[in-house]
Specification:
Layout: E1 7-9, E2 15-18, E3 21-24, H1 27-38, H2 46-54, H3 58-75
Antiparallel strand pairs: 1-2, 2-3
Length: about 80
């Protein structure tokens, strides 16, 4: 992942830099954002994203996906996500 732009990861995937500030993320939230950044400009379904993050156990992860996605947005300061 490139360090260009307002959003990039630090030395650890759980250290996300957003407009110059470091945002600590859990491994799962970081994996969600990493997968979205990796597929920037593309439409990716919830199911495809869940499979990337939880692998064979993606059905269990789908239950928590909406909550995890929303809290990622709040951590970055976007209350509308």
């Amino acid at each position: 992942m490139s360090a260009e732009g307002p959003l990039h990861f630090g030395l650890s995937i759980t250290d996300l830099h957003f407009h110059g500030r470091c945002v600590q993320l859990t491994n799962t939230r970081a994996s969600i954002l990493y997968a979205l950044m990796e597929n920037s400009g593309c439409v990716i379904s919830h199911e495809t994203l869940a499979k990337k993050i939880w692998g064979d156990h993606y059905q269990e992860g789908m239950k928590a996906f909406g909550f995890l996605y929303a809290t990622c947005g709040r951590k970055l300061g976007n209350r509308s996500i």
